[in-house]
Design goal:
The chain is an all-alpha fold and 68 residues long. It is built from four helices and no strands. It is 63% helix and 0% strand.
Length: 68
């Protein structure tokens, strides 16, 4: 099993949410204050992020997490 699978899955979900809202990486960068390079790496699953950064991105996308 790929030890980065969950990171990649979260990155894909972030990318899908961003694209559904027609927001570019540059626009999300402006909204969140995170660099577009970091955001790209997060979407690709190549960067490990913490809860605070994830929250910043989700708030910028106006996305909520529902835990089941």
């Amino acid at each position: 099993m790929d030890k980065y699978a969950e990171r990649k899955n979260i990155g894909k979900l972030i990318c899908q949410a961003r694209e559904e809202k027609n927001i570019s990486l540059e626009q999300l960068s402006e909204i969140t204050g995170l660099s577009s390079i970091h955001l790209s790496r997060i979407e690709e699953g190549r960067l490990n992020i913490g809860i605070d950064m994830l929250s910043q991105i989700l708030n910028g996308l106006d996305v909520k997490i529902i835990l089941r």
